Amino acid sequence: MNMYSKLILVSLFTGSLLFLTATSHAGVGHHAHEHKSSVGEPAKGREVTKIITVTMLDSMKYVFDQPLDLYEGDVVRFIVTNKGVIPHEFSIGDSEEQKKHAEMMRNNPSMSHEDGNTVSLGAGETGELVWRFKAGEKVVFACNIPGHFEAGMHKMAAVFPLSREKILPDSEMNEKHDHSTHKH
């Protein structure tokens, strides 16, 4: 076998290993961009209805720039910044999904994410997730790097069904509907 043939075989072998590693990594819980959850799914940036800025701190806290007032169908762009000096992640899911993700991270502590529901960030980095919320289960925002969730790096929020009040509260409806200009 000449040197050229050996080089081709090594290249094919290396490519096969890379493919197998990538596909087996996906099989152990690395989520795809099409990740659907009981609390929603990734969405397109052009559909955004709300922007929320999230700061991740080494004190194992998330700081949201506004209350998590979430409704069915809201498409939120989360702009997430790691203000710490150690890596953190921001993951969206229900309680059961976060438990599975935490187990996967315990088995693969150096795993990094850039998925539809999770972003991993090093010190000083900023990333984004765009998520369409679905009512039902409580949504859990979590850092599943081993020890971080347990130290308090998580937040739970309700996602409310879309209601008439979300569209236009009665108080606003009465203010905008002036009965003096017409009769019923």
Which descriptors would you attach to this protein?
single chain, 184 residues, five-stranded mixed sheet, four-stranded antiparallel sheet, 4 helices, 11 strands, globular
Mind telling me the CATH class of the domain at 35-161? Mainly Beta
Distance linking N and C termini: 95 Å
Which class best fits the helix and strand makeup? alpha+beta
By CATH, the topology of the domain at 35-161 is Immunoglobulin-like
Query: Can you write the helix and strand succession as a string?
Result: HEEEEEEHEEEEEHH
CATH homologous superfamily placement of the domain at 35-161: Cupredoxins -  blue copper proteins
Tell me the number of helical segments per DSSP (H or I, 4 or more residues long).
Answer: 4
What Rg is obtained from the alpha carbons, in whole angstroms?
22 Å
Q: What's the CATH architecture of the domain at 35-161?
A: Sandwich
Give me the count of strands.
Answer: 11
Q: What average pLDDT do the residues reach?
A: 77
Strand order of the largest sheet: 1-8-5-2-3
Uncertain runs: 4-33, 168-179
Oligomerization: single chain
Principal-axes geometry comes out as globular
Range of helix content? 25-40%
Query: What profile does the largest beta sheet have?
Result: 5 strands, mixed
Beta-strand residue fraction: 25-35%
